[in-house]
Structures are given as C-alpha cells and as structure tokens.
Design a protein that fits this description.
CATH topology: Tetracycline Repressor, domain 2
CATH superfamily: Tetracycline Repressor, domain 2
Strand content: under 5%
Radius of gyration: 23 Å
Structural class: mainly alpha
Number of strands: 0
Distance between the termini: 85 Å
Largest sheet: none
CATH architecture: Orthogonal Bundle
CATH class: Mainly Alpha
Number of helices: 9
Length: 219
Amino acid sequence: MHLNAVKRVKNSEKTLKRYKMKKNITKDQIINTALELIQHKSDVHGVNLREIARTLGCAHTNLYNYFSSYNDLLWETRATLQELFAETVNTKLEAADSTEQKLTGLFETFIEMYTNNKGWFRLAWHEQIAGERPQRDIDATNNVNETLLKHAIEICQEFSGGSVDEDQVKQVLHNTICYLVGEISNYLTGKSEITDGEMLKAHAGYEALNMFIICLKLV
C-alpha cells in the first residue's frame, strides 16, 4: 500500500477512536471509577487520571471539566468513601435484632470495609493528599463521627437502661477506633503477627468489643 494511503488509514482509525469515546461523563461516574480502581491498591497514587479516563472510555481531558488535578479527585473520592461508610453502618445496625448485635455490628462494619479494601483504608486513614482539604471532605468525616457516636450512645443507653455520659462514650469510641486503625494498618502492611485475614477480623473484633464494654462498664 502506498505510504500516504497507510497514513490516511491510520489517521482515520484515530479519528474513529476519538469519535467513539464517551463525552458525557458525569462527576459521580469519575469518582465511582476512582473508588473501584483504588479499592485494592497498595498505593492510591498508583492510579492516575489517564487510567480513570481509559476505564470510562473517554479522553482524559474530559476529567478536567470537574477536577483540576488528581489530588482534587482524591479529596472528592475520600469524601464519597466516608459517605459510603456511614451508609453501610446505618444499614448494618438497622438490620440488627438485638443490642448485642448492634454493638458487634458497629465494629464489624469498620473491620470488614477496611480489611477487605486495602486501598480504601489507605485513602481514608494513611495517604497524604496534597492541596487544601475541601469542605465536603470535612463535612463527610464529621458525619461519620457523628453517626458512629449516635449509634454508640444509643447502644450504651439500651445496655444501661438509662442515660449515659456522652463525653465518656465519645472518648472510648475514639480510642477503640484508633485501636482498630492500628490493627488493620499492621495487617495490611505485613507487620502484624496475624497473617490470616479472617483471624485478624475475629481478633480485632473481639478486642474492640471488650475494650468498649470494659471501659464503659456495660457488664
């Protein structure tokens, strides 16, 4: 084939490829795709805008209509992850049949979500994201804290049959979550003595439950 003809064919293929690319990509689609790609990553910065665009089937320049940089997208993705976690906690506890199940479910939800999705754990708890923290992420994180505290207070009230010291519940809940973050962090980075995922979940759940119960004298 003549050289010019070959060039025309290749140019036509490129034009067709661009034509087939999706153009009507929404902000939510971009965030959800980022969540999916990050989900099991050891390094959330291992994903980039080009990979996300390729997964969506659009030009990476389309993403700049919503996000000025990858870090900007990471902040929005973290906020969405916080919202997802709050929804998961609410769903889990609403389905519980007893106070004991609610208390177990409160910590099980945290352990399950973050041990099963190491990239999400890193995004939520480990990774430093450059740029100014947006208000949406601050609000989403505060909502998670308020959701967990609300459930914890209600559980303690059901156990005690009356009022509880809400400040004390808040402090004990904070300490228990910090313990879980440490356990999960050690496991995901290969520094834990427990190498089996199911054993880690059982151990961390048992210890968190006992810590919460003993510190608040629920038994």
